[in-house]
Amino acid sequence: MKELFLVGVGGVFGAIARYLVGGWIQHFFPTFPMGTMLVNFVGSFFLSFIMYLSEYGGIISRDVRLFLTVGLLGAFTTMSTFEYESFRMLEGHDYIHLTVNVLGNVIGTIFAVFLGKEMAILLRR
To answer: What are the residue boundaries of the structural domains of the chain, listed by start?
Structure first.
């Protein structure tokens, strides 16, 4: 029961953060889903950082890791929104934005995972 509570509370905060951060960023990019891409990048970085820091350093307890990764970051990242926005670009034959969006999200978030891992390793040295 405690795990469900931690995930649920983290999810509430993650969803609110996603709405605020994604919306704020999107305000500056009205024709491209930059808010979604940035949220995915930031979420991937922090998920990786927390998981690798936990693995390499044992600094983060299981409960805190569950709250942050499954709850907060699980609600913060936006894979379903990314897929919907990409499909809308495909429907609209906006192939340039579609390509930038897909490559930016996929390659950018893999790079964010790498950065999170490296940051965790550096912090533990």
So the answer is: 2-124
The reported pTM is: 0.82
Residues in the chain: 125
For the CA atoms of 75, 77, 79, 81, the dihedral, rounded to the nearest 10 degrees, stands at 80
DSSP for residue 1: -
**Can you spell out the DSSP letters for 24-66?**
HHHHT-TTS-HHHHHHHHHHHHHHHHHHHHHHHH--S-HHHHI
Residue showing tokens 């307890």: 61
Place of tokens 């950082």: 49
**pLDDT digits over 69-101, tens only?**
999 999 999 887 899 899 999 999 999 999 999
Residue 50's alpha-carbon distances to 19, 69, 103, in angstroms, are 22, 8, 24
Structure token digits, residue 103: 């490559």
pLDDT for 18: 96
- Show the tokens assigned to 52: 């690798």
